[in-house]
Amino acid sequence: MTATKPGHWFSQKTSREQLVLLAGVGVVMLYLIWLLLWQPMLQARELSAQRVASAEQSLLVVRGLAQELADARENPASGGVAGSGSLAQTLDESASALGLRIASLEPAADNSSVSVRLNDVGMAAVLAWLFEIERTGTMSIDSLTMAPVPTPGNVAVSLRLRGT
Prior knowledge:
Number of strands: 4
Helix content: 40-55%
Strand content: 15-25%
Order of helices and strands: HHHEEHEE
Strand order of the largest sheet: 1-2-4-3
Radius of gyration: 32 Å
Shape: rod-shaped
Largest sheet: 4 strands, antiparallel
Number of helices: 4
Structural class: alpha+beta
């Protein structure tokens, strides 16, 4: 057996076969460059764009909340929790006034506290509602849990309120 030299196999090919092989190697190299370099860069760019959009949305929500807080501090007499009645009735009326829909409302047996659940509601409206509840002094917040939901700027809220 005779040992073949590297490149000997290639040099035995006709010039047309050599061109086809070089073109094939070129196509494979371009594919590898695309697969290993270009595609990850495109994916990273898309992810960055999504993060920027999400951050911009969060910034708009925070600016809106800051404006509402500033407005509420300047004008504390505006709005308020509606009239007298049970805690559940008062909460339902005040939430409705701000466009919030209470998903569940469970008063305690002695009507001294109530558990409230709101699903997929605007963070700004929830904060305004909680501000009004605390501002009026008729109720205090015992516990509060907020969780993000898929809708940007919205949350799911669970809280327990006690009459004062």
